[in-house]
Amino acid sequence: MSISKKIVLLGHFGVGKSSLIRRFVENTFSDDYKVTIGVHILKKSVQIDGTDLSMIIWDIEGNEKVQKTRNSYLMGTAGYIYVFDASRPSTYESINEDLTYLKGLLPNVPMHLVGNKVDLIDLPELKKILTKKNIDCKYFASAKTGDNVETIFESLGKQLI
Amino acid sequence: MNASDKLEILKELLLTDERKYAESITKKLEVLEETVNKRNKLLPKVEPIIDDKLEEFVEDIPKTLGPTITAALKEEIANSQDAVVEALFPIMGRMIKRYVQHEMQLLQENITEQINSRFTIKGIKRRLKAKSAGVSEAELMLIEQGASKLHQLFVIEKGSGIIKASLTKDNTIDHDMIAGMLTAIKSFVEDAFQSGEQELQQIQYDLYTIHIQNFSQYYIAVVLSGIFDTKTQGKLEDLLLNFAQHKINKTDLTNQQEFSNKLKAYFTNEYI
Ligand SMILES: Nc1nc2c(ncn2[C@@H]2O[C@H](COP(=O)(O)OP(=O)(O)OP(=O)(O)O)[C@@H](O)[C@H]2O)c(=O)[nH]1
Ligand SMILES: [Mg+2]
Questions:
Q1: Does the pLDDT at position B247 exceed 60?
Q2: Would you state the pLDDT for residue A5?
Q3: What is the pTM of this model?
Q4: Co-location of B53 and B142 in the same domain
Q5: What percent of chain B is predicted at pLDDT more than 70?
Q6: Judged by CB atoms within 8 Å, which residues 94-113 of A form the interface with B?
Q7: A49 CB within 6 A, ligand 1
Q8: CA distance B213 to B222
Q9: Do the domain assignments include residue B1?
Q10: For residue A61, how far is its CA from the centre of ligand 2 (angstroms)?
Q11: B159 touching A, CB under 8 A?
């Protein structure tokens, strides 16, 4: 059986949304920063438990405020990934607020919170900070090293079928 | 001449007053001088008059001589029409031809660019077809450009942009990505202009027109090339509305394969 599902990546400017997708879809990485304008759509097919899942991935432009995201980009999404930059506290300071907002907008839609760029930081240190801020984050990745990227997309995929 | 005559001459030569002679020469010189001066004084006064007269003369030629000349020419032309046509034809012909050529060249450049930019299987096919039909490839493209040709048709779920069915001739780009981008563009435009209930109905891209027919849960996007005027648009809309009304049922939206087969069976003619 084969199915197609829409997935959206959200988060502040430059947290590495496009890089994570590029790592997942093409297994490449670049240090150049090319700002995404509007939305860019990529696709990757994966086999999960005998099902062919086409992930139609919407790479949305970054926003200082998640409230500013165009609703139409979120419409009809089967799941989403909220990305923050582990090396820049400003990108995760208001995470709980942002996630509450998104949950209100997309009730019952599977979500993964991902801290990216872990190659730049001391992970145990970050986890401490996050706990202090009451931020519950299970996924940490690096688009640069490829660490955890596939796992994250596939575990979200599992929740979609 | 006798001796006394000779003597007379000699007397005169020797005895005539020198002063008298000089006087006569001076008089002659004065006359000469006066003539020269008068001429110089006259010239500036006379010259403009002459010029004016000349100009007038030239100006008057058409008035005075013109009718005569025209009449003569008319008669000449009437008497030798063939010769005149012969003489003018190359000039006018060249003018017209140059204009047409220019226009054709623009068109040709357009088409050549298209051929070069889309070096696809379709291009090669066209080349073969052109060869076997004995027409130029560009000519064939002109025919192809004239009518509105259906290239791709997608039934796309609103919001998610997921394809529910498709009908497609060329398999160039990934359809899921096209459908996603189309949906993104569509919602962007609809958001951006705060159009309320209004929905995007057409996108023009290069030589293509993407016609969008909106329904409540999905929309149908049709990619066409060639002339897409109101008449063609009306025809296409009828086709799509008919299809939606009589052919699409609820289960189709969950069965892509069957839905696509239906599309294929319905849209058999690739020209609208
Ligand atoms: N060291 C390191 N750098 C990264 C990583 N991921 C992304 N970057 C860099 O961060 C910058 C921004 O990455 P993008 O992927 O363009 O970020 P984005 O979230 O798509 O940005 P916007 O489209 O503007 O919202 C680029 O210079 C990337 O090379 C990572 O895991 N480690
Ligand atoms: Mg980006």
A1: yes
A2: 94
A3: 0.63
A4: no
A5: 63
A6: none
A7: no
A8: 8
A9: no
A10: 6
A11: yes
Same-domain status, B139 and B170? no
Residues B141 and B160 in one domain: no
Q: Which of A88, A95, A93, A96 is nearest to A117 (CA)?
A: A88
Q: Check CB contact of A68 with chain B, cutoff 8 Å.
A: no
Q: Considering only the top CATH level, what class is A2-160? A: alpha beta
Cross-chain Cβ contact B191/A72 below 8 Å: yes
Residue at B4 is within a domain:
no
pLDDT digits (tens, 9 = 90+) for A101-154: 999 999 999 999 999 999 999 999 999 999 999 999 999 999 999 999 999 999
The values of phi and psi at residue A62, to 5°, are -70, 155
- B86 and B73 in a common domain: no
Does B195 share its domain with B248?
A: yes
Q: Tell which residue, B17, B37, B18, has the closest CA to residue B29.
A: B37
Q: Are residues B222 and B161 in the same domain?
A: yes
pLDDT of residue B31: 80
State the pLDDT at residue A94: 93
Which runs of E-coded beta strand occur in chain B? 149-157, 163-168, 202-205, 208-214, 218-225
Residue B97 within any structural domain of the chain: yes
Please tell me whether residues B101 and B137 are part of one structural domain: yes
pLDDT bracket for residue A93 (50, 70, 90) = very high
pLDDT per position as a tens digit, A26-85: 999 999 888 888 888 899 999 998 999 999 999 999 988 899 888 888 999 999 999 999
**Domain assignment present for B175:** yes
Q: Tell whether ligand 1 has an atom less than 6 A from the beta carbon of residue A3.
A: no
Domain hosting residue B129, numbered range = 80-146
- The number of domains in chain B is 3
Contact A63, A43 (CB under 8 A): no
Q: Which residues of A touch B200 (CB under 8 A)?
A: none
Q: Are residues B36 and B121 in the same domain?
A: no
Q: Which amino acid is at B212?
A: I
**Which pLDDT score is estimated for B111?**
63
**Which of B187, B195, B218, B254 should we substitute to test contact with A (largest number of A Cβ atoms within 10 Å)?**
B187
Interface test with B, best of A21, A36, A41, A54 (most B CBs within 10 A): A41
**A46, β-bridge pairs:** A53
Protein residue with least CA distance to atom 13, ligand 1: A16
Mean pLDDT over B1-17 rounds to 66
Residues of chain B neighbouring A6 (CB-CB closer than 8 A)? 160-162, 180
Are B176 and A39 in contact (CB < 8 Å)?
no
Query: Distances from the Cα of B234 to the Cαs of A63, B229, B264, in angstroms?
Result: 42, 9, 21
The ligand whose atoms approach the alpha carbon of A15 most closely is 1
Angstrom distances, CA of residue B246 to CA of B226, B242, B262, B267: 28, 6, 11, 14
